[in-house]
Design a protein that fits this description.
mainly alpha, 4 helices, elongated
Length: 94
């Protein structure tokens, strides 16, 4: 465990953009799972996971009293995470 923390700290010191990219992509995944879980618990059925899930959440959120911010943050987190990851990977030190 100590070795893993040391490797993460070393990566953060050399190129924080890669780590932040993964963090933002992880946040996006957690937000998407949160939105889907809320809809599933409210009785909505899905055949497959799609971005229509987010639109459905925004349509029914007022009826259930849910906050809109999880759905609004999904795309910015994904875009920021992917951009930071690509930027960080292309600028890794030799």
């Amino acid at each position: 465990m100590q070795e893993n923390l040391r490797m993460i700290a070393e990566m953060l010191r050399h190129d924080p953009a890669v780590v932040l990219g993964f963090v933002f992509i992880g946040i996006q995944g957690v937000l998407f799972a949160h939105v889907q879980l809320k809809l599933t618990r409210a009785g909505y059925k899905f055949r497959w996971i799609s971005w229509n899930t987010v639109l459905e959440y925004l349509r029914v959120r007022a009826k259930h009293g849910w906050l809109p911010w999880p759905a609004y943050l999904i795309w910015p987190c994904l875009i920021a995470g992917a951009a930071l990851l690509v930027f960080g990977l292309f600028h890794l030190p030799d």
